[in-house]
Design brief:
- It is a single chain.
- Helix content is about 85%, strand content about 0%.
- By secondary structure, the protein is mostly helical.
C-alpha cells in the first residue's frame, strides 16, 4: 500500500541523509524533496496519471498524505546513521 511505501522510503531517506552528513534544514529539505519525488513516481507509475480514479481525495492521499507520519521514521534513521558515520 501507499503508506507502506511512504514508511519505507522515509527510513531510506533518513539513512541517506545520515550517510551524506546532512544537518539542520538541509536534512529536512532532503526529506520533503524525496517525498515529493516518491509522490511523483506513485502518480506516474501506479496511478498512471489518473489519480482521480484511484484516490478519493487525490491531493490529500497522494501528495500530502503520510508526510508528517513518515517524518518520525526519517528523523530516527537520520540521527542513527549520522551518529554511526560521524562517530
Amino acid at each position: 500500500t501507499i503508506s507502506n511505501i511512504r514508511s519505507l522510503t522515509a527510513s531510506l531517506f533518513g539513512v541517506s541523509a545520515g550517510i551524506l552528513g546532512l544537518e539542520s534544514y538541509a536534512g529536512f529539505i532532503f526529506y520533503f524533496l524525496g517525498t515529493l519525488f516518491v509522490s511523483g513516481l506513485i502518480y506516474a507509475i501506479l496511478a498512471q496519471g489518473r489519480q482521480a480514479e484511484y484516490f478519493r481525495s487525490p491531493v490529500k492521499d497522494l501528495w500530502t498524505g503520510e508526510v508528517v507520519g513518515g517524518l518520525s521514521s526519517f528523523v530516527l534513521t537520520w540521527t542513527l546513521f549520522y551518529g554511526l558515520v560521524r562517530a
